[in-house]
Specification:
Layout: H1 2-5, E1 7-9, E2 12-21, E3 27-34, H2 43-48, E4 65-67, H3 75-83, E5 87-89, H4 94-102, H5 115-118, H6 122-131, H7 135-139, H8 145-168
Parallel strand pairs: 4-5
Antiparallel strand pairs: 1-2, 2-3
Length: about 170
């Protein structure tokens, strides 16, 4: 398991955090991959890890919309969202748009996304900044991916606890 979560990046041997957040900047799902891993293939596993439990009933696993940056723009990800009836708020990459236009009318319709909803995508960036407020997570002091992931989960739980105590008072 260690070899799969630790990989080469520009900074050396490291790991990459892929996550989903709610609109209140709280983590919903965390996945750790090797440092050189691409973002797009991790989209579906992160989305599958999302479980939101309400006051009653089963956990909710299907959000109304998903906002992501261009790194997650792929046919596979968009098809997955369409199958699950989730609104995709992901801008199209320039090379994908050029390839679609090159095919003419057989290239399909242009990808649309809600620009107002896309403005909220910075929530994920803010959550990453909150996680990396811990110096151990930001500089990756932990040698093993398991202990690093444990630190990330601990920090994520502290973010949740702080938010829950703030809203109940």
């Amino acid at each position: 398991m260690k070899a799969a979560l630790l990989g080469r990046s520009r900074g050396g041997q490291t790991s990459k955090i892929h996550l989903a957040a709610d609109r209140r900047c709280r983590p919903l799902a965390l996945i750790l991959t090797a440092g050189q891993a691409a973002d797009s293939p991790q989209f579906i596993p992160v989305l599958a890890a999302v479980r939101v439990r309400g006051p009653v009933g089963r956990p909710r696993t299907r959000p109304d919309a998903v906002a992501a940056d261009k790194a997650y723009s792929s046919r596979n990800n968009r098809a997955h969202l369409r199958e699950r009836r989730i609104k995709a708020v992901i801008p199209e990459k320039k090379d994908q748009a050029a390839n679609r236009k090159k095919k003419g009318r057989h290239g399909g319709r242009p990808v649309t996304h809600d620009a107002e909803l896309y403005k909220e995508r910075n929530i994920v960036e803010r959550l990453i900044n909150k996680l990396k407020a811990w110096r151990g997570i930001a500089t990756r002091y932990d040698k093993t991916p398991e202990s690093y992931l444990a630190g990330v989960h601990l920090r994520a739980s502290m973010i949740w606890i702080k938010d829950l105590t703030r809203t109940t008072q």
